[in-house]
Amino acid sequence: MKKLDANLQQHLWAGTVIPAHPLALHEDRSIDEESQRLLTKYYIASGAGGIAVAVHSTQFEIRDPKINLFETVLKWASEEVDKAQLQRPFLKIAGICGPTEQAIQEASTALKYGYDIGLLSMGGLNGWTEKAILDRVRAIAAIIPVFGFYLQPSVGGRIFSYSFWQEFVAIENVVAIKCASFNRYQTLDVMRALANSNRSDQIAMYTGNDDNIVNDLMTTYQFPVNGKIVAIDFKGGLLGHWAVWTQKAVTLLEEIKTYKRHPDNQTANHLLSKAIAITDSNAAFFDPANAFHGCIPGLHEVLTRQGLMKGIWCINPNEQLSPGQKEEIDRVYSDYPELNDDAFVLHFLNSR
């Protein structure tokens, strides 16, 4: 059983920005190695505290034997992190999915390339009982530290009971949970389960609620437990949204951390207003108006505009921007110019 390094555990607990790494392709849908490596370098330069590779934003089709890019994207990202020779902590997180046997193989591949944690998706297992899914989590946690993942049903996830999360947080070697339920009630279930466990100081909560990023990070969840108040916070975010405008996301998280240390009404009002702008931008990128059909091409559109990718192509040719989505991205660029990191990206590209 691999354990998380103590320095990385402290880094995870302190809270950091973890972008969900996209997949860069050529027009013929072969992988674009130059752009793929460039994206990893951009996230490192942006000040992110880690990357999550082979996740939803990297496209699940990379696991198709005909495509066969799962190991490739893990290898290249790991190589770029190692080449950077960072003098600061940086988390390498590998997406893990599928039935138990497949998940075990993917966890082993992640270890082969030096990954610290496995982000364990529970998507695509809708016929499984909660007990069977918990057994699968235990099997993976016996191999690699686990980052749990509550994925919203509209993109392949499912709803879990409060008792499921009570058992989940008790599993040894679960070190963090990404809550991407896009639902306040379901988010609350996870936070309350952790507060009522004996591991509330061992599992770092990370928001994956791309529709509610700032509010999640600003809020302290307080629960009465055995006559005491237990406080649970989202430490940082592991987000598809943070695959774009990443340098500004790093600034945002620091701003929120400062506010939480020294709260004041003026800063709170400023952040809550910014929260609306960020959610509006996320709607343009993630395409909820069309059941999130354009969420990956939406991220690609921004990265292509910035010169970090050559085009918005996805493995599935039907995965394209929805009608009107490009215009929505134009609008949020115009309405919220303070949110983009175009100037940073230009400097990054010119200084290579």
Task: Please give a structural write-up.
This protein is of the alpha/beta class and 352 residues long. It has helices at residues 6-14, 33-46, 70-84, 100-112, 130-141, 162-169, 184-195, 213-218, 246-261, 265-286, 295-306, 325-335, 342-350, and strands at residues 17-19, 50-53, 91-96, 117-120, 146-151, 174-180, 204-207, 220-225, 228-239. Strands 1, 2, 3, 4, 5, 6, 7, 8 and 9 form a 9-stranded mixed beta sheet that branches. The protein is globular, with a radius of gyration of 19 Å. The mean pLDDT is 96.
Instruction: Describe the main β-sheet briefly.
Output: 9 strands, mixed
Order of helices and strands: HEHEHEHEHEHEHEHEEHHHHH
Number of helices: 13
CA gyration radius, whole angstroms: 19 Å
Mean model confidence by pLDDT: 96
Instruction: Give the CA-CA distance, first to last residue.
Output: 39 Å
In terms of DSSP E residues, the strand content is 5-15%
* Range of helix content: 40-55%
Count of beta strands:
9
- Give the overall shape, derived from the CA principal axes: globular
Structural class: alpha/beta
Unreliable residue runs: none
Please provide a brief summary of the model.
The protein has 352 residues and is of the alpha/beta class. Helix content is 45%, strand content 15%.
Q: Which features would summarize this protein structure in a list?
A:
nine-stranded mixed beta sheet; alpha/beta; 352 residues; 9 strands
SSE arrangement:
Blueprint: H1 6-14, E1 17-19, H2 33-46, E2 50-53, H3 70-84, E3 91-96, H4 100-112, E4 117-120, H5 130-141, E5 146-151, H6 162-169, E6 174-180, H7 184-195, E7 204-207, H8 213-218, E8 220-225, E9 228-239, H9 246-261, H10 265-286, H11 295-306, H12 325-335, H13 342-350
Parallel strand pairs: 1-9, 2-3, 3-4, 4-5, 5-6, 6-7, 7-9
Antiparallel strand pairs: 8-9
